[in-house]
Specification:
The protein is an all-alpha fold and 115 residues long. The chain has 5 helices and no strands. Helix content is 74%, strand content 0%.
Length: 115
């Protein structure tokens, strides 16, 4: 059986890696080893920051809810959530925060029902 040389696939792999590193500054977009290192690091940051984004949005919703609740006469976010759960409402932070910012009249009705 004849020997198969790997040049074509190796070139394809290198080309693909450098394509993905396009736009990186300096040698990180030109040299193979530096581009590979930059891509590995970027992947780790992307993985971690996908989780951080969820935390950041959760914090944003809580801040928005707390501000809207104080306008509607409630003492704090935590006491409101406790009363909301005990009264049987099945609304999460995201939906409540959307109501608070986009449809304040609906949110004020929900806040008045939860006492």
């Amino acid at each position: 059986m004849a020997r198969v040389k790997g040049g074509q696939m190796a070139l394809k792999r290198r080309k693909n890696l450098l394509e993905r590193a396009k736009g990186y500054r300096g040698v990180r977009s030109k040299k193979l080893n530096f581009a590979h290192e930059a891509l590995m690091r970027a992947g780790r940051y992307a993985f971690a920051h996908r989780r951080d984004k969820k935390t950041a949005f959760r914090q944003l919703w809580i801040v928005r809810l707390n501000a809207a609740l104080r306008e509607n006469g409630h003492k704090s976010y935590s006491s409101f959530i406790d009363k909301l759960n005990k009264s049987g409402f099945a609304l999460d932070r995201k939906v409540l925060a959307q109501f608070a910012t986009e449809k304040p009249e609906i949110f004020s009705r929900i806040a008045k029902q939860v006492v």
